[in-house]
User: What shape does this take?
Amino acid sequence: MRGIFGAVGNLVLTVVGFASGVIALGLFGNDVFGWMDDQGLYALFLLSILLLLLLINAAYVQLTWGRDRKYAKTLKVLNAGFASVHNELDKNHDGVIDLEDARIACEAMCNNLSRAFQVITGTMCSATVKILLWDEDEGDMYAHALARDEVGKRVRAMNDKLDRVKHYVKKNTCFTELIKCIETTKEDYFLRNNLPRENAKKTYRNTSFDTYGEIDKGIFVRLRRWPLPYKSTLVVPIAPNSPQERTENNLLGFLCIDSESRYAFSKDYDVDLATGVADSLYNFLNAIHKEVESGRANLT
Assistant: This one.
C-alpha cells in the first residue's frame, strides 16, 4: 500500500506542481518575460505542457513497471527456499520424513517467501504453511500452522502459544471459498486487500478473531483498532498441479501470505508466484501427511 500510494502521491504532486506553473505562466508570463513576444510565450507554454506529459509518463512507467522489476530481485531468495524443501525430500528416498527436519525446512521456505513479498510489496509480510487435519468429533477439517516465517513467529508467538482454537475450514471464509473454487475449477486463490472493510460488510469470517478479538463497529473504528496482525491476505491451496487431480480430496493445506498494510497484493503476478511455491510444497506436505496418518508423527 505504501509503495502504490507513494508512487501515486508523487504523480499527483508532479501534476499539481506543473499545472500551477503552467497556469502562472499563462497569467503572468507577460510580466515575467516582457521581452518575449506572444509567439515565444506560446512556445514556452507548449514546451511546459510537453514536459509535464513526459513527467506523467515517467511516473506511470515507474508505477506500472517498477513492481515488475522487483520480481527479478526475489529469484535468488526464492531459490534458496526451494532448495531447503527439496534437499529435505531428497535425503528421504524411502518416503519417511523426519517431522522436525521437515518443519525447519518449511520455515526456511516461509522466511524466504516473506522476504520476497516484502521486496515486492514494500510492506511487512508474513508467510505461513498450514496443513489440513481431520477432527473426528467436529466432522470437519481444520488448518494447523505447520510453519511460519521468523517475523510471523515473533509477532504471533504469544497468540500461537495461547491459541486453543482449531481453525475449521467451514468457519473461515478463505478456506471455504478456495474449496468452492477447486470444486468448480475456477481460479483457486483467495485475495483480499482490505480485510477491515470485508469484515465490516460481514463477508469475511476468521476463527483468529476468537484469539485476537473482534470489533463490531463501523469501518473507521475497525481501521483504527483492527485486531488481526494483517489487513491484506493472499491464500492459495496446496494441491496437485494437474487439473484432473486438483480436487478437494487431494487438498493437503494452504499457503497463506499476509501483509500488515491494505492493498499490498496484486492479482497479476503475486497469485502466480504464490501458486508456484504452493505447487512445490505438495510432495513435501504429502510426505508429512503419510507420517501423521501412519501414527509415526503427531502435529498437535
Remarks:
- The chain has two domains: 2-67, 74-294.
- The CA atoms of residues 160 and 295 lie 24 Å apart.
- The longest strand covers residues 125-135.
- The two ends are 36 Å apart (CA to CA).
